[in-house]
Amino acid sequence: MNKSSLTVPSLLGDLRLLVVLFVSFRLLLMMVYQPFFIDGVERGVSAGGDLYTYYGMAQLAAQVGAPYQGWWPEFPPVWPFLFNGVYQLLGANVNYTAFAMLLGLIMLGFDVGNLLLLRALAADLYGANTGIALAWVYALCLAPAVFLWWTFETLVIFTVLLALWLFAHLHGTRASVVIVFGTLTKFTPALLLAATWRFRQVKHALRHTLLAMGIFVLVYIPLFSQNAPMTWASLSAQFSKASYQTVWALIDGNLKTGSFGPLEDRLYPERAAIALGNPPRVPGWLRLGVAGLIGLFIYARTRRFDHKGFVAFATISLLIFFLQAQGWSPQWLAQIIPLVLLCFPTRNGVFAVVLLTTVAFAEYPFLFIRTGDTGGEISGALLLPYVILILARTALLIGLCIGLYRILRQEAVGQGM
Q: Could you tell me the residue ranges of all domains in the chain?
């Protein structure tokens, strides 16, 4: 064992120490604030997240059958089968505390992967010193530490970072497999394929796309064969949601978080198409069309074709998608933060992450926790700060997109990947 005194260079350069501190902080947080549900109230580190909803879905599956057979989940199959598998693994003595802790520990494993991948990618792009510095910044960010106990975005960004690392090391086929695994967890990792069309030869981009699409279809074929209505309800559910927590929601007059209604609705595939809120005044096809045109403009104007450009293009694609989406969830920060740090490894990049995190948590849970007497709807004195927070977050995301566009307009020395 090394017994020499710590110095700043040795401390900040010690990856093993960073990993130990990273893991121990999250484990101790779980031990001090154990998740549990009692007397109708969720307590502990998972309070405010979605794990209790997933626990209810797993209980539903125990009664009516597996996901896509007896009920529809609103996500692609990886996550529903994972949390259902955890529930089954815990056996007859399953309870919410054990369920939430085990899922959180699984997400912690992926978050360690995120830490190491962020360091490796940053080292490839900017050098070893920047790599370890960004890893420390990520370790000190609150949002990733919270969200691994709330939801599964930690797994989603793991697939994105792993695919980016594989592309950087010219493992395109493996990256395509990782992308489709991520897409089978949540649809956003599929946006990485847009970057392959700009930064790879057409034949390679076509191969990556066809491989990803082929695996995706092969996974869904047995699901459709078992229960087509439930599977289609799952695929389409997110696109049928009313707007929430965005400028689009303000325009529509929807002042609640996104919701699919009670768990019992998932027994009926036709209820996936019921939007719980006011209909959109700006249709989804128009939002998506404008976002697509902006994306094509950036595609045509891109001049930077090294891996920094690849990461920047993937990041701006994700942010444009989030900006056009009818809804916003604070846990999406788990995807945004590592990518912003990779693209802006500066003090300003860290400030942007801190501002986004502050705005996101000020909106939820800080404001929404005060809506218990209005059924979860923002009203009265909460309305003005709520509008300001949404506009501030939107402005921050647009500002990041402008910064990313400027990166893509630069010509790198020694172009090529």
A: 8-409
